[in-house]
Amino acid sequence: MNQTIETIMNHRSIRKFKAEAITDEQVNTIIKAAQQASTSSNVMAYTIIGISDNALKEELYKVSGHSHVKNNAHLLIFCGDLHRINQLANADESVSIEDNLESTEQFIVATIDASLAAQNATIAAESMGLGICYIGSLRNDINRVNELLELPNHVIPLFGLVVGYPDHQPDIKPRLPLEAVYHQNKYLPFYEQQKHIEAYDHEIKQYYQTRSSNTKIDTWSDQMVRKFSQPTRMDVSPFVKQKGLNLK
What is the pTM of this model? Predict the structure, then answer.
């Protein structure tokens, strides 16, 4: 196993950071690594916004509710961005371009491009001894985040990424067995996956009962049923359409 694989396999979400700054050089390296991610047709349909202003971090914390959104060395917000493409067109071209930008296909492209860039950023940061945590809870009030960041049309905030020096070492959370997520040549019926999911439920239950903090009795299956039984962030869909994306 090489060092890159070891870094990936050692991933855990960090939610407590030391009061230690990271350098501009480290930030720039993380962003440059993000830019080297694969991108559909070289569109690079994302923008990364670095948040260094503490007052702005405080406002974003109010949206998220997670203290590590304001207590970190650096906060990055990854946005799906098709605005710059639209700006390249002249008046005649913009009509056909606008129609294309509103498609579900281009919305997927922007989301995937941003996600690939973020994962490159994560691996780069962790390779430097830094810790990270993805912040999906910025979508708790996506309209407020949009307002705070002054995002133009065709740009949406997808998630945040907090970065800094870890001040704790949480246990690595087990993942679903390979057999549950890797299918060869065709999608496996659920009954063929079920035994692997049941094995994972047993493993994750043991993990929750024996981890170093926040112990509980729970299984992955129970968590997923609870999670998807409650409507969540239902304002995201109309917001995305309001921004001129995923309309067709």
Answer: 0.95
